[in-house]
Amino acid sequence: MNRLLLLALLPLYCAGCFAYRKPLPVGHIPEQTTVANEDEQYGHEVLSQLSQRYPLDTDDKRILRVRKIVEKLTSVRKNDQNIWHVYVLKDDELKNAAATRGNYIFVWSALVDFLQDDDELATVLAHEIAHVLARHVQPEPAILINQTISQTAGSATRQILYGQSAGVAAIAGIADYIIRQSLNAALINPQKQRLELEADQVGLFLMAEADYDPEAAIDFWEKAVKDPDLNGSTLQFLSTHPSSEDRLEKLKGYLSEAKERHQNERTSFRKRPIPAALPREPRTKSSDSAREDLVDW
Question: Could you say which of 133, 166, 198 is where a domain stops?
């Protein structure tokens, strides 16, 4: 039996052979070039499926708040050259946000209401935008390979164990489950955890450049540590997300650099020369409304 289990677990030791994309340097904010049509179609399909379970929010105040924050965050490094599709989904209990291919950002109404401070809400939205900018929403070959290994190993183990005896067959399902979960945790989840931490890192500097206080990211994760609806699984070995404590410690390590960039951005903005005075028509309520109508999300 031990030899059979060792054989089934062999792919686990081969995991180090696959090269992952190098981590982004601390402080780097990726820039988008184009968004493929197939990615937009993919995002639209995700929206269609989500909206079947969660209705689209109709609260104009809530929707406008989220969209204005996203607009400000995506203006950094001219990442607003592509359309961002932002949707608030109605649910009074689910505190969550998500992103997918095609520049689709989803946030649930319970989270928007829970985070009354715009800087804290920007923390979450910057994290999701970072996933898109860093191309985390595009599956990496290594992850696909590891998923295949996990599925194949589980199937092979089941076949081996079922072929031994009736007594062994009785525990084959349990053995298959244990091995599959172990491989998932060892091969897939650490990579996903790395991407979550990278999105936290990129998001922190993104919000700093967009003139949101990076201290708010610390405030948010300190709340998350105490809130079971926001905190990750305590079983980190089998969790795709790092714990809130881990994320908080990582962000604290980047905070001083992010605060310096935030201050530099504010100073730079104040020092920008004022354009020569030109005749300007006074802004009216009607012209402001027309401008808002032109924003395409």
Answer: 133
